[in-house]
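Subject: Sanity check before I submit

Could someone independently write out the structure tokens for this chain? I want to compare against mine line by line before I put it in a report. The sequence has 700 residues.
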Amino acid sequence: MNDVVVLNKKESIALIQIQNPPVNALSHAVRQGLMEAVRESLEDPAIKVLAITGSGKFFSAGADIQEFGKPSLEPQLPQICNAIESCSKPVFALINGTALGGGFELALSAHFRVATASAKIGLPEIHLGLLPGSGGTQRLPRIIGADKALKMMLNGQPVSAGEGLAYGVIDRVEESGELITASMNFMLETTAGKHPRIPTRERTEGLQDEAANHVAIGEHRNTWQKKGKGLYSPFQIIDCVEKALSTPFEEGLKYERESFARCLESPQRKGLIHAFFAERRCRKIPELREIEPRKLERLAVIGGGTMGGGIAVAALDAGLEVMMVERDEAGLEKGRLNVEKVYDRHISKGRMGPEDKKEVLERFIPSTDFERITDADMVIEAVFEEMEVKKEVFRILDQYARQGAVLASNTSYLDIDEIASVTSRPEEVLGLHFFSPANIMKLLEIVVPSGLSNEVLATGFALGNRMGKVPVRSANSEGFIGNRILGAYSKVAGYMMEDGTSPYRIDEAVRDFGYPIGPFQMFDLAGGDIGWANRKRKATTRDPRERYVEIADRLCERGWFGQKTGRGFYLYEEGSRIGIEDPEVLDIIAGERSTKGIRAREYSPEEIIRRYIGAMVNEAAKVLEEKVARCPSDIDVVQHYGYGFPRYRGGPMKYADMYGIRKIVEDIEEFSVEDPFFWKPSELLKTMAAQGQTFEDLNL
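---
Independent answer below. Compare away.
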């Protein structure tokens, strides 16, 4: 035994408890301890039943992330699972809390599973580009059949103990009382032969309906062929479950381990593991280690438009009291409807009932009176994206918000220092760049102007965490992290369009790379008028050497702003969000090309991606040089959660590492022959290429 696994013998029961906080990860020491405890319990003739449980709120969350990428030391988890399953004495998994991944596979190898009502079980390996590699793909289908097993593995989300009981994978749920005590009679009954000990490998109830199982395999494979283009592990999972239906257990286990090894070596696994760690790193801000955030119970939102309504919903969902302030009754009514329609949609889809909506809206206080914000702990401005409008709002906020309240601007591009300058407390003003729809999109850029109080910054992060957002720190710079980089690859998409490749072929290439939508679909979704206003704002400061593509302006001049007007780069039929190609847009592009004397050329999908990603990585390197982003992985997180960069590729910085920094620089230098102003490799990229560095080397 060791410190992380404790064996206590109580009469005829051996209680084996994992004590490896915070999540009882299955580290090498835990695995050793489990094997020793099982061995000792089997050798003791007084012991009739073994019970494995966890401490705290976790049974076990699975593998120890500190061991990722390192050689696995014996005993490995599959050995332990096989040893438990082969025990000559009944083994119970007492699932006291969350059991995920290898933790749930450990429970699956026991002969019986008892859970608390609040417990959750799941196999989330797909999110890391892996599959359950300790028998999960072989044991679970034998108990619950292919369809339910695949849903758990391919969805990757945990299910409740109640759902597990309904599936048949949990034998009993204890609604009240301490789990070990509540399970005692059940465990003792097995010693009297009342409940036969059946190893999971010998379970067959899930295999009985062969026709349904094979239909499920076909349906899941077809679904993932449509939605999982470019992905690897989902198809390996499906193949493994199919093996469980038709081959002996040992052969299935061997196939699972081979499939697991293939996933482990795939670039997708490397990308997804990087994304996993990047998301955790972005929350760890060195200057906030000893800083407590301010009290945060009442939030005021200024503006009831789409963004203000979304922020209000996100805050209500986080349990906050929310005041919404609009300038007149008409605007306020629109804001109230923007909030209510979200909850009405939840009701229509069965996610909540009318009473739940009523309970939430009891914390929602709409008003046209700015004096209502005096009780707010934080005030978020969400008005029109125009500097003078925002400054006027902040003059009013400075007058009415109490001392110590945090003042925040939801802006996509504008200078937070300039906004803060109109107040008497600039150290309490920060940027909170929510992404639309704000109640759904998880990214939150937290923008830090000069002189910001660390308490205020900590409060911004506390809000993001409470709302379930992924908060990323950004310095105060035009467009911050995400929109600044977006500006670069949007330009190159425009250049390729004007040079002769249709926007529809560019979108197709970007989707094939793994994005959910292409850049021109994104422009239509966001609204062309927003980008147009920003371009007009910057027109007087644009460098005359910079190539400027006017095609988007031509569309906006016609009132074609995208989905909201039924027309943009795409044509949208009545009520449809799916655009179709528009011949008139192609005519406008051809006209612009003719006016400038550009001889049309077609870019291949490969070259489209080389240019698209090259521009993205080059601008991201400048963002790092200027310390707008803290580290490369923060940029990857922004691109995952705000802009749809395929997670399995790790993010643009991780992708650049795998593609090769030197090759990125060579691509940029190749493209610079035609446009030396735009295609200029950053100093950081050149230095990294010369010194053989990667972006991973620069992560904190």
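---
OP: Matches mine. For the report I'm noting this point. The chain has 27 helices and 20 strands.
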